[in-house]
């Protein structure tokens, strides 16, 4: 029965070694990153990466850049890849256009947030910035290319692209709103952390991750390719790990952190 539903919602995988390999690599690498977060091996771009004094000593000679510049480097190449796809693959069908548009909007929103919403208090390691930026770029290109390869392949029996558009809009709106709430926690001269309030922050510590997951589920529903579903599953596993570590961090920093606030899913996790 599960195989029947899988065939009904996913396009047959194209005969591409590249896309097949990237589907597996993307899922495994993102899942591993989520596991690494839980085990204490944090990517060097957030408030978690420099909490261990021993780690600080080991990265003294690393080149660092401002967080704003680093975040722009993270997202801009992927955004440009999404925009360029309209010129590289003209006259594509509606599904392809929606996938490219969703990815372009997703990363354009992130660039706008970097420029006008987020507030920063630290620096980022350049090596990690380049690595993460490259991963965003490659995953965006791979998803668009996988969609290109579905041309001529029979459509899935269940057309989920309009459901996907609705989920994507809910996800990107909810993610933006909670990023805005986070930005309002600090004044310009305030570099400390506070317990987030408002929106779904009263139920989970990472509602922005929850809505990011909803957005990527939407993109995978629009796309309905093996690559998009594998990437989304990897993203979910990674953000589960990130949300777990985030709640653990807040519990360690704030004695008054409300214990009923979950990691990612209200009332459950």
Describe the overall structure.
With 269 residues, the chain is mostly helical. It has one domain (17-53, 61-253). 65% of the residues lie in helices and 2% in strands. The protein contains 9 helices and 2 strands, in the order αααβααβαααα. The protein has a two-stranded antiparallel ribbon with strand order 1-2. α4 (67-88) runs parallel beside α6 (126-149) and α6 (126-149) packs antiparallel against α9 (226-253). The chain is globular.
Summarize this structure briefly:
The protein is mainly alpha-helical and 269 residues long. The chain is built from nine helices and two strands. It has a two-stranded antiparallel sheet.
Kindly state the mean pLDDT as a whole number?
90
Work out the strand percent: under 5%
- Please tell me how large the radius of gyration is: 19 Å
Estimate percent helicity: 55-70%
Order of helices and strands: HHHEHHEHHHH
Indicate how many domains the architecture comprises: 1
Backbone structural class: mainly alpha
Work out the helix count.
Answer: 9
Number of strands: 2
Could you tell me how far the N terminus lies from the C terminus, measured between alpha carbons in angstroms?
Answer: 28 Å
Form type: globular
């Amino acid at each position: 029965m599960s195989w029947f539903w899988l065939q009904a919602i996913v396009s047959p995988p194209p005969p591409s070694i590249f896309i097949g390999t990237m589907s597996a690599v993307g899922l495994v690498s993102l899942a591993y990153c989520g596991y690494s977060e839980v085990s204490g091996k944090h990517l060097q771009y957030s408030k978690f990466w420099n909490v261990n004094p021993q780690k600080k000593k080991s990265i003294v000679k690393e080149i660092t850049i401002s967080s704003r510049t680093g975040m722009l480097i993270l997202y801009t190449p992927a955004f440009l890849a999404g925009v360029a796809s309209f010129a590289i693959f003209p006259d594509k069908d509606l599904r392809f256009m929606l996938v490219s548009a969703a990815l372009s909007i997703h990363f354009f929103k992130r660039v706008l947030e970097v420029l006008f919403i987020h507030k920063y208090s630290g620096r980022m390691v350049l090596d990690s910035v380049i690595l993460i930026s490259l991963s965003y770029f490659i995953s965006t290109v791979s998803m668009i290319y996988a969609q290109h390869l579905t041309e001529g392949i029979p459509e899935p029996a269940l057309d989920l692209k309009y459901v996907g558009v609705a989920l994507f809009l809910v996800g990107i709106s909810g993610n933006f709103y909670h990023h805005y709430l986070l930005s309002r926690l600090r004044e310009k001269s305030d570099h400390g952390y506070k317990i987030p309030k408002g929106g779904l922050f009263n139920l989970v510590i990472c509602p922005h991750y929850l809505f990011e997951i909803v957005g990527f589920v939407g993109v995978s529903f629009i796309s309905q390719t093996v690559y998009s579903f594998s990437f989304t599953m990897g993203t979910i596993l990674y953000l589960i790990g990130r949300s777990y570590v985030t709640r653990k961090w807040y519990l360690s920093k704030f004695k008054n952190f409300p214990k009923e606030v979950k990691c990612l899913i209200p009332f459950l996790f």
